[in-house]
UniProtKB/TrEMBL annotation:
One Pfam family of this chain: FxsA
Species of the source: Aureimonas phyllosphaerae
Cross-referenced PANTHER family: UPF0716 PROTEIN FXSA
Any single Gene Ontology cellular-component annotation: membrane
Domain of life, source organism: Bacteria
Region entry Disordered, spans: 130-175
Name assigned to this protein: UPF0716 protein FxsA
Entry keyword set: Membrane, Transmembrane, Transmembrane helix
Length: 175
């Protein structure tokens, strides 16, 4: 979609919503129209709460199974967008919001956007199966460990900063 269409769509949406309000108000009356708007706000908030909790549980189950919950994350974002669209007053946004609450529609959108989205986990971009990070333990006995001070020529063990003069006993620093 060319970038110029985004501002045009944002300008056109309120005009379309006003036109639909006038049409629906003329068909069923002002009070039923307002009741539908209030009902959509209440239903949107309730669906948002219910769907968000179930998506969060599914994402946690995926993470516990050792997989990156990318589908659940994207579905959660779409559910949040659907709830916002339902809470916004207007019938056009309500239609799009209700459509996004349907799992088959979310799956369709996910499959269309999947190649353009990179989900990043705690270890970086997903390139291999997700593994939950855990503590890395190195188990050594006293005989397996040996300390060598500056013997291997490593720059991390070379001491040549201020206070390294043997005649001058100050703090030792690594450079």
């Amino acid at each position: 979609m060319p970038l110029i269409l985004i501002p045009l769509a944002l300008l056109a949406l309120p005009l379309i919503e006003i036109g639909v309000f006038i049409w629906v108000g003329g068909e069923i009356g002002v009070w039923p129209t307002l009741a539908l708007v209030i009902l959509s706000i209440v239903v949107g908030a309730a669906l948002l709460k219910r769907q968000t909790l179930s998506t969060l549980r599914a994402a946690q189950a995926e993470a516990r199974a050792g997989r990156l919950p990318e589908r659940q994350i994207v579905h959660g974002a779409m559910i949040a967008l659907a709830g916002i669209l339902l809470i916004l007053p207007g019938f056009v946004t309500d239609v799009f919001g209700l459509l996004l609450f349907l799992p088959p529609v979310r799956d369709f959108v996910w499959h269309r956007l999947r190649s353009r989205i990179v989900v990043v986990g705690p270890t970086g971009a997903r390139t291999a199966p997700y593994r939950q990070p855990g503590p890395e333990v190195i188990d050594l006995t006293g005989g397996e460990f040996r300390r060598r001070d500056g013997v291997d020529g490593s720059p991390w063990t070379r001491l040549d900063g201020p206070g390294d003069d043997p005649d001058e006993r100050g703090p030792r620093t690594l450079h």
